[in-house]
Design a protein that fits this description.
Number of helices: 4
Structural class: mainly alpha
Shape: elongated
Number of strands: 0
Order of helices and strands: HHHH
Strand content: under 5%
Distance between the termini: 100 Å
Length: 129
């Protein structure tokens, strides 16, 4: 008669650990995907407002003598700040959140560069005298 392999408590514990690791990895991936999707939705919903705020930020940076940042980067940063408050990110590391912001920036379909027919100054303020 052949001997039947029996599961030991060590085998069961290893299987439980492996399953928990897979569950954590899947949860982290889902949070990452939801964060990217939420940032993209925020940008598409509020692209005009975020674009104006980004231009104001760039003008403030120029006034302080700092280099300007691309508008689309600032738009994604602002959208990320708004989304991060209401989206669960407990499983994500700081590096993963930064990576989500990079991916969101790459996926933005609406260009924030000035079009030839667009108004150059969308902030509507009085000229400095």
């Amino acid at each position: 008669m052949r001997r039947v392999n029996l599961l030991t408590s060590r085998d069961v514990a290893a299987a439980v650990r492996a399953t928990k690791a897979v569950v954590r990895r899947e949860e982290r991936q889902q949070q990452f995907d939801r964060l990217v999707k939420a940032v993209l939705a925020q940008v598409h919903r509020n692209n005009v407002r975020l674009g104006v705020v980004a231009e104001i930020e760039n003008r403030a940076r120029a006034h302080r003598g700092k280099p300007q940042v691309p508008v689309d980067s600032l738009v994604v940063q602002l959208a990320m700040q708004e989304v991060i408050e209401r989206t669960p990110t407990s499983s994500l590391t700081v590096a993963e959140v930064r990576s989500a912001a990079r991916i969101a920036r790459l996926r933005i379909e609406v260009p924030f560069q000035a079009r030839p027919d667009a108004v150059v100054d969308r902030i509507r303020r009085r000229p400095v005298v």
